[in-house]
Amino acid sequence: MIRKYLNEELGLILVFLILGLYGFIDSFQFQYPTDQFPRVTSAMVVILCLMMLSKNYLPESMQILMETEAGMLEGEEEKLKIDQEVDEPKTSQSNAVSQGPLVEILPSRIQDKVWYTLIMLVLYIVASFFVGIVWITPIFVLIYTVGIGRPWYIGVALAILTFGIGYLFMEMLNLPMDEGGSLE
Amino acid sequence: MIDAFLEAGSIVSQPETWIWITAGILLGIFLGAIPGIGGALGMALVLPLTIPMDGVHALILLVSIYSGALYGGSIAAILINTPGTGAAAATTLDGYPMSRSGQAITALAASATASAIGGFFAVILLLLLSPLLIEFVLLFGSPEYFLIAFLGLCLIVVVARGSIIKGLIAGTFGLLLSSVGLAPNLPETRYTFGHPLLFDGISFIAVLIGLFAVAEMLKLAGEEGGIAQTTVEMSGSIMRGVKEVLNRPYLTLKSGLIGVVIGAVPGAGATVSTFVSYSEAIRSAPDLKWGTGIVEGVVACESANNGTGGGSLVPTLSFGIPGSASTAVLLGGLIMHGVRPGPNLFTGDLHISYALFLSLFLGNFIILGVGLGLVTRAGVLTKIDTEYIIPVVFALAVIGSFAIRTNWIDIGTVFFLGVFGVFMKKYNYSIIAFVLGVVLGPIAEENLVRSLRLSEGSWLIFVQSIPSIILILMTVLVLVSPLIEEIRN
Fold first, then answer.
1. How far apart are the first and last CA of chain B?
2. What burial class does residue B303 get, using C-beta atoms within 10 Å of its C-beta: 0-12 exposed, 13-18 middle, 19+ buried?
């Protein structure tokens, strides 16, 4: 569990570091003064990432800046949830409750709603790119809702709602949402 | 100034404006009441919808959603001990015990009344102080705007969740991401790989949608739908709730003032102000049984909560420094509709600022009306299964991001940042700092480039005025203060 934690966060830091390095190196191709801002910011990203990667070798006073602590903005509601009563809603990891017919056909290693949601989202975007957002959106909403075990008629209602929203957008803003896209 | 106020009054008195205020407040209350959703997500999804709207009406809609969500978060906090927004976290301390002791309706009515009064007070204070604010804002030039953008980012980093270094990584990465595309004021493209779709850069609206909507829904997918396991008993008295607040004018107004002051601090927000207000209420009346279900606990939090709404507009409009996720989206809305934060909003465009203040003022009437009128039915909101919301939000996210520029890069941005955002949240890399970096990046760079041009390349321009030196010292102090505190401990 701890290894998994370290690997995922390490991966995140490496993504920041690689993109920061690329940004820094590429900034030397830009003219002055448009090179200043990206060079300074990318250098900061690289330095900060290197500090995170080498935190165990830094002085204790520097390590304090890297210690995780919950602040007032995003942390308090999480702290409060720990103190809440037993009758709180359970997570979807419970074995006693069916997660939905389409969730359960996934390989057991990724048989949870997060993976199901992610895969459906990817399929939705890819299909929309080839067919058109306004047509794929209601299909996605219906399949997703039924796939997690919710009643089909609610899925149909939501599909109609989202089709209506998509159609309104298309008409009001004159958007080409009824056809596939292009990356050119 | 009087002309601007009258012009704002004429804008706000239009029937169309009232429709947008009402729609925004209702949507905000609905979104704020559902745990895990909140105002920022709703505002991010609505942002592309406002493209064809008149700029002022679009901003009024966004501000109304923000204000409604600040109040809406208290509904779930009181009824099921789960705050709908971070700002309502402190309300659970006394609101939920009141609900458990059969006073749910009293607590909700008190919440609506205190929120409305706190909001009214905040707006009146802002209108009275606006002449001073104008003079203060006019002291700032390009070097100062660059420095205050950086100070705002550092403040968010220190106040938000996670370590300072992680927050700085997130914030500076956001700044770097904002430099993709055409450089400001020069015909040079950066980090585009020669691809024309990237010439306009990464859309900050797509970033907002990805991080606030998609990431949140992916996270929510891992939790069971938000159905309250127990039936909430809706008992109590609306009139009693209103009277309890009216019988405590000092507490209500003091809490509202705390909300305005803390809301005006870049980087702080309603979560901070509600806890500070609650702590101050305890300090001033230690003999009361705090935490057992007393109305004072609800009043102190909710008045500060909505007071923050008004206060947070000050740094957002004056300097483009948002104090929270919601005001970051609001800032995005300002920029999207061609309204630049800064001196203009307190000189030539003063009527826009006043229109926003007045719409907040009027919105509080709607909050009061909805809060008191529908309080007996508020329990329905806690029964909404959030799993129905997930596919709808995804659909809105894809449609909305396509609507920005009909550019599939934006949809890709939404997806990748949505996934990236899940990991950032998981390992406490501040999303708000990241968003702030993306939104403030162009403002910061524009002022940096202009300052360097004025000084012919010399960085000394950033230490040549007293406001600049003060800002630099404040930035250093903000960054090292946690270190100093740790050493002292």
1. 50
2. buried
pLDDT > 90 in chain A, percent = 42
Q: How far apart are CA A16 and CA A45, in angstroms?
A: 7
Q: Could you tell me which chain A residue has the CA closest to the CA of B150?
A: A41
Give residue-wise pLDDT tens across range A78-124: 433 433 333 334 444 444 455 677 777 666 656 678 888 999 999 99
CB contact under 8 A, A165 and B399: yes
**8 A C-beta contact, residue B110 and residue B255:** no
**For residues B303 and B117, is the Cβ–Cβ distance under 8 A?**
yes
Give, in order, the Cα–Cα distances in Å from A48 to each of A10, A40, A44, B173, B429. Answer: 13, 12, 6, 10, 13
Q: Which residues contact B121 (CB under 8 A, 6 or more apart)?
A: B252, B253, B256, B257, B260, B303, B307
Q: What is the 3-state secondary structure (H, E, C) of B256-272?
A: HHHHHHHHCCCCCCHHH
Q: What is the pLDDT of residues B301-327, one digit of tens each?
A: 999 988 888 888 888 888 777 777 788
Residue A4 clears pLDDT 60, i.e. is over it:
no
pLDDT above 70 (res A1): no
- pTM for this predicted structure: 0.80
Q: A30 and B175: CB-CB below 8 Å?
A: no
Looking at per-residue pLDDT, the higher value among B225 and A134 belongs to A134
Q: Give B293's Cβ-side CA count (13 Å radius).
A: 16
- In chain A, which residues have their Cβ closer than 8 Å to the Cβ of B51? 173
Other beta carbons within 10 Å of B77: 33
Task: Report the candidate in B36, B75, B24, B31 with the shortest Cα–Cα distance to residue B371.
Answer: B75
Contacts of residue A76, Cβ cutoff 8 Å, sequence gap at least 6: A70, B86, B89, B90, B271, B275
Round to whole Å and give the CA distance between B66 and B24: 8
CA distance B169 to chain A (A): 6
Residues from chain B contacting residue A114 (CB–CB below 8 Å): 218, 221-222
Helices (H) and strands (E) in chain A, counts: 7, 0
- Chain A residue with minimal CA distance to B385? A150
Pure H helices in B183-268: 204-208, 215-221, 238-246, 249-263
CB atoms closer than 10 angstroms to residue A164: 11
Please state, in angstroms and rounded to a whole number, the distance separating the CA atoms of residues B341 and B319.
6
Q: What are phi and psi of A167, to 5 degrees?
A: -65, -40
**Backbone phi and psi for residue B112, each to the nearest 5 degrees, phi listed first:** -60, -45
Query: In sequence order, what are the residues at sequence separation of 6 or more whose Cβ sits closer than 8 angstroms to the Cβ of residue B259?
Result: B118, B122, B270, B273, B274, B277, B303, B304, B305, B306, B307, B308, B309, B310, B311
Determine the straight-line distance between the first and last CA of chain A, rounded to whole angstroms.
Answer: 44
